[in-house]
Give the backbone structure.
Amino acid sequence: MYYIRIYVQAQSEKTAARKLLQENNLRLGHFTTSRHGANFVETWVDGMAFSELNREKEEINRLKEEFEKHKKQLLKRKPQVSTAKTKGGKTSNSSEHDHLTTDEFYEMEEILKLRAAAIRKREADVLAELEKLERERTLHIRELKRIHNEDQSRFKDYPILSERYLLLHLIGKGGFSEVHKAMDLRELRHVACKIHQLNRDWKEDKKANYIKHALREYNIHKKLDHIRIIKLYDVFEIDENSFCTVLEYNNGTDLDIHLKQSKYLPEREARSIVIQVVSALRYLNEIKPPIIHYDLKPGNILLGSGVYSGEVKITDFGLSKIMEDSDDSNSDGLELTSQGAGTYWYLPPECFMIGRAPPKISSKVDVWSVGVLLYQCLYGRKPFGHDMSQSAILEQKTILKAVTVDFPSKPAVSSEAKNFVRRCLQYRKEDRPDVLSLCDDPYLRPKKLVNQSSSNVSSISSNSLP
């Protein structure tokens, strides 16, 4: 009975999602396919809401032209100071019938000022509405792709995997995997089922390598138990070309989508996110052997919603490094054998250095990533290589040239936040703090504790011997 209720609810949610999609196709826009020679090309067509806004912008432009015309006409009728004597000895304005009196001019001038203010407000309202619609359109396009991928998935018809996990709907799709929201019928909780699908045409050695990589990620992830890290519950084979990992379900979005919707975040929110991420990194560096995440980026930071709003969890340990034979205090770090992997905007210079031997890395890789994350949250752009492709970053050696970080004048950000970013983005890894040192950074600690520590130091200094 419980299974049937969940199944019916999932069907209802899927129907509602498609109904909303159709409504948004009309309101926000949709893709159309047209033929160009031998190829079919998808073109985006804006919906009615954008058409209405465009008409409103045209009307505002017409009003602005009218306003400028009236303004010029009023200036031509401005009262004249110079006067000329008539034959009868009286003074008279040279264009008496064209010019206004001082009172009339002032009255019309005030009317035009009010009209200009009304036009500016109307224009600001349109721009605000356009920004809102563009954010909605971004989510709509994402939902269009999600539903298209869901309709193409072989797991779309609510299968039960491993006699336990009822798949409800597709969350997202990657290169060789897709993630479904599911119900664990044994534990009666929602989970995320990540289904890895190997290409049937792959050679056996490529399949073996993919499985080896996925199992390595599973073996790292399954041992982790921290409130700021997504839990991994289970792994099982579906058939000879696919298997599934079962993860903790996060009923929210990720930081990447949040930033695309918000552009940038208030410093208080950005700082809270970083505090939580660093808490997870502390755990990864205190366990034995320590772990470097190596792929910290907005897409791998999940945000809570509802009663969990404000909370974050990190995920995706596919590129993680285990520091088995290395101790930050006694060595230069771990040899980077997978040079070229990762998301370049978030990796430090040492990951791009080429020499006779592979570069050495440590937890300071993740510290650099934290600095990039905070900068991006505060300013809505990456500090290095923003709007550049990964290949361009590599070709132009962008990160290798990232010696200093520049801060935009807006939005306003505290000097403490800027200094924290500078500490994280020290070019030489020897000058950059490791994760455990970063945990004690004054910017991440409660202000009361920082002030208390400062007062204690002052007290000790005042009581010391001369």
